[in-house]
Amino acid sequence: MKGHVDEVLRTLTNFQDKGRSNSSLYLFGYGDGGQGPTEDMLERLNRMKDIDGLPKVKMATPDEFFTEVEANDSKKLCHWMGELYLEIHNGTYTTQAETKKFNRFCELLMREVEIFSSLSLAESVARNVGPNAFKYPAEEIRRLWKSVLLNQFHDVLPGSSINLVYKDAVVLYKDVVDSSSPLLTKALQTLVQTQTSGDAKAIPLVANSCSWKRTKVVEISADQLTAALVNRATEPPVTQQDFTGKTLVITSAPSVGFAPLEPLSSLVNPVTVEKLSNGNIRLQNGLIEAVVDDCGRLTELRFPGSKKNAVAPGLYGNQLVLFDDVPLYWDAWDVMDYHLETRRPVEDVFEKAKIVLEGPLRASVEVSLKISDASYVKQLIVLDAHSPCLAFNTEVHWHENHKFLKVEFPVNVVAALATYEIQYGYLQRPTHFNTSWDWARFEVCGHKWADLSEYDWGVAVLNDSKYGWSCINNILRLSLLRSPKAPDEAADMGIQKFTYAVMPHKGVFQDAGVIQEAYNLNCPLRIDSFVLPDTSAVSRSFVEVDSPSVIFEALKLAEDAENVLVGRFYEAYGGHTTANIRFGFPVKNVKLCNLLENPIAEAVITFCPTSKSVEISFSPFQIISLLISI
Asked: Checking CA distances to 289, which of 65, 113, 410, 417 falls within 20 to 30 Å?
């Protein structure tokens, strides 16, 4: 728009809310990286401010425009419920898989750096240790976040930049990883050192950044196992060697805190794996039971003792499928609906499924499949003790041209809607093509999980780095890799590694813990060995939330206040709830604030200094931020 009369008149003609509002927004200037408005444009628009036959034109900021519309017309305007789905560029959910994997990993790594650095600061302030106090690395954290956010620019993270951009992006991401890891280690070391006294010993500790207690199988070194068994008076722990030489144990960690590594000495339901007479392989752990064929495809997925198979009759779960992917216009940006007509199952076996780990803590099955003459995939199908999920650790050697790789899970349910995680909540989208709007959503965006359920039963698929999904009828698909040739002809070429998992559940996905398991997959327990003054390290939980629907998402230093932290929580289930939040570190006061960290004067919450807790009511998907004085 250059401020011409015909443009202003066309803007008025195209305005869809005549009768509801007398104001519309006219944007002008050279956009999309250009230089904005020119002197000629400003002069033309100034002359049009009050001319008969033309709408009155005045200069204003967006804030002034929306304030005026809100004050005068808001009750008359139409309201939209749900997402405004962009019906193009849905290939950007998948293109440039390495960038998307780095993005997810770095976002969650920075989250943990902020959480444990904030806790270390709170403990240090309370102890008043003077010059030896922990210094919150605010500037370094800000620098690293800027690198992560720079790569979320609209052509980098979507996968629609040139090759040189992705070389630069990897450098930035690796710097975030390399620089964040020592920050996290230092924060954890400061936390645990403040808890003990005595002779110095090296003790392995388990750290958990999620707001629920976790019991998981973890990989440790032989030295860490030896250190964990010092002064152990109980029975020997259950251990297992994996094929990489690591020792597997199962241990627990409290909510948002740490505990000494204490491997469990017994299992109620150890993992078992067996080869059946028909050549298929069964894995089970007391929570779920799965059967895979020679190709690594699921033929059965059920709860032990149940006759109900989560895999649709006559079909296979974990079915890798290849599609032709030739968009009409924008190679890296778009995937067209007609690609669905080119489905080809990946069934050419390089190496048949074979058992590589037999329990009792972890059972694994390995399989390799040929995708084409140029590409192949190797999978490790893993079932852990105490896990309700069957995981697929996947390595793809990808050298394709305009192909699209997905994985299918045909689910034995009937549902009109599938549920997809988005940031701080979820969306439900149709599984049918009743209307053109439904048809346009043949490829959609989601984050760590998606779920397809009917009454009292369903199946969720989780992942550690993917964002593209589709669900048609009862077939839930996760998009894995694309191979566009413009603007980066090398997009996604090479070795790609990622993990996804399938989780059958009873009841609704909220009560089954799907959201928590997705966090568990993306935020694994952290094992570190620290030199401590006492071998009897104390277990600590720093944040506890009594409502499972409220997720603790962030803890950071306030931007403009001294000795004040910002905690962020959100309601994840889509309902009203009241949560009691207890802090396990010294807290003086708690206030509600907005996302800009400004206190909300009219909001009153009661902080109990004795229990260091606060009770807060949440509405569906509400994000609540707290100013926590330490």
From this structure: 417
